[in-house]
């Protein structure tokens, strides 16, 4: 009986170990065979890096200067030692916008590039524009399909709930984060849960030190550091 039990335990351990190893497999693979791993970070102002450079004790109501792109892509490149293209456009909505939507811009950024991995971090502006689920979800699925059909690994990111002057949008960003998680599960995609990251890192969320306050929408230097570290963890397969 002990021998049977030991055999079962060994078998279970082997299967569990294999599945754990598979779950921890690095996303950073040279999928196009060009000898390098490259990442595209596709998103809006939070990908671009608006609000970066402020410390938690600095209070701003309006971030007037966009400046050069910064944010998490630059940090992610340093953490991972790979090229990360910052493809963030401030003010862009994925599904709805006054000019060009993220859906319309996406193929021109991704197709023809050397990227092996595409991080999609959109939806904050859609939330502020109250874009309904039946518009946002097909838009996100469309860009997922475009990237995967072209052989790219897609990584999705949820949205941090805004605070202070933008707190009224939190229920809408939370709803879009739920849709993002659902699509990640449906498409078997890795997801960077920025919403959970901020909530865990800021027990007193209304005064979260990851944000520029009282502006309350864009991360500060500490917030971008946290996002980059979590992105790196997920891309490494953690």
Topology:
Blueprint: H1 2-23, E1 38-43, H2 45-48, E2 59-60, H3 71-80, E3 83-88, H4 102-110, E4 117-121, H5 124-128, H6 133-149, E5 153-157, H7 170-186, E6 191-192, H8 194-201, E7 213-214, H9 221-235
Parallel strand pairs: 1-3, 1-4, 2-7, 4-5, 5-6
Helix pairs in contact: 3-9, 4-6, 6-7
Structure, explained:
Strands 3-1-4-5-6 form a five-stranded parallel beta sheet, sandwiched between helices. Strands 2-7 form a two-stranded parallel sheet. It has a single domain, classed as SGNH hydrolase (Rossmann fold), CATH 3.40.50. The protein is built from nine helices and seven strands, in the order αβαβαβαβααβαβαβα. The chain has helices spanning 2-23, 45-48, 71-80, 102-110, 124-128, 133-149, 170-186, 194-201, 221-235; strands at residues 38-43, 59-60, 83-88, 117-121, 153-157, 191-192, 213-214. It has 238 residues and is of the alpha/beta class. Helix 3 (71-80) crosses helix 9 and helix 6 crosses helix 7 (170-186). 45% of the residues lie in helices and 12% in strands.
Summarize the structure.
The protein has helices at residues 2-23, 45-48, 71-80, 102-110, 124-128, 133-149, 170-186, 194-201, 221-235, and strands at residues 38-43, 59-60, 83-88, 117-121, 153-157, 191-192, 213-214. With 238 residues, it is α/β, with parallel strands linked by helices.
| Helicity level | 40-55%
Q: Give me the count of strands.
A: 7
The CATH superfamily appears as: SGNH hydrolase
Overall tally of structural domains: 1
Highlighted features:
single chain; five-stranded parallel sheet; Rossmann fold; 238 residues; 9 helices; alpha/beta
């Amino acid at each position: 009986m002990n021998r049977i039990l030991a055999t079962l335990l060994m078998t279970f351990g082997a299967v569990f170990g294999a599945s754990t190893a598979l779950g921890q497999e690095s996303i950073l693979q040279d999928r196009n065979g060009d000898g390098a791993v490259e990442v595209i970070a596709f998103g809006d102002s939070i990908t671009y890096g608006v609000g970066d450079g402020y410390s938690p004790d600095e209070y701003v109501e309006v971030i007037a200067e966009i400046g050069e792109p910064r944010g998490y892509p630059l940090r992610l490149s340093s953490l991972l030692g790979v090229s990360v293209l910052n493809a963030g456009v401030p003010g862009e909505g994925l599904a709805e916008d006054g000019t060009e939507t993220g859906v319309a811009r996406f193929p021109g950024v991704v197709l023809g590039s050397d990227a092996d991995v595409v991080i999609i971090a959109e939806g904050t502006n859609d939330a502020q524009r109250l874009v309904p689920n039946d518009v946002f979800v097909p838009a996100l699925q469309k860009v997922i399909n475009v990237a995967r059909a072209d052989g790219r690994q897609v990584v999705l990111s949820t949205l941090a709930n805004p605070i202070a002057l933008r707190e009224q949008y939190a229920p809408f960003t939370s709803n879009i984060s739920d849709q993002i998680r659902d699509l990640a599960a449906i498409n078997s995609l890795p997801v960077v849960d920025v919403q959970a990251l901020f909530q865990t890192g800021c027990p007193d969320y209304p005064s979260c030190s990851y944000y520029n306050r009282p502006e309350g929408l864009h991360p500060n230097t500490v917030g971008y550091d946290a996002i980059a570290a979590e992105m790196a963890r997920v891309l490494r397969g953690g």
